[in-house]
UniProtKB/TrEMBL annotation:
Gene3D superfamilies: HIT-like. InterPro entries: HIT-like_sf. It comes from Luedemannella flava. This is Diadenosine tetraphosphate (Ap4A) HIT family hydrolase.
Amino acid sequence: MSELPFHAHLPIGEQLAPPTDGIPYWEICPYDGDLRIKVLDEPVLPEPPRHGEAGADDCNCTKSPDERVIWTDGQWVVRHMGEPGTVPTVMLSSVGHFDLSDMPAEVAATMGTMIQRLERAVLSLGGLGRVHINRWGDGGAHFHMWFFGRPIGMMQLRGTCLPLWEDVLPNMPHDLWVSAMTAVGEALAAGGGEARPV
Ligand SMILES: [Zn+2]
């Protein structure tokens, strides 16, 4: 197997023709009209370090552990995004500094319960059809997972394009955002842990 087995079929440096079907033509795509496809760049190796890659001392978990926290139980922490978004959005992180692949087994073992509790807490806001859960991990080395509440009935916001819609739609009113973030923290605290004021 090649040293880079998943690169050989990628058309790096080539201008691709627009697709004749696919996501740009689906109702969930926020963009309409003529789109061009970006040319793929050569791979960057080694990759540049992510935030916190050098360890806890280089990470917000040490520099500003209480920032934007709406709930914590000492093992998991839920944060708001610092300002209103289009939809209710919160981030779940481990308190300890690790990523998923090096997460201690005793922490990883509680993740399923934690994800379920947070989904239920977001759904308890009402008016939401689904909670989208995303984990990318390309920006920060400290394990974190995104939870987006999709407004019920908004069928164009289904699926993978919701973060793209977030980029183009107006944000919710500040008062609504504060009450929603407070309610998520309090809903979690009803099952244990401690809510923090927004
Ligand atoms: Zn960290």
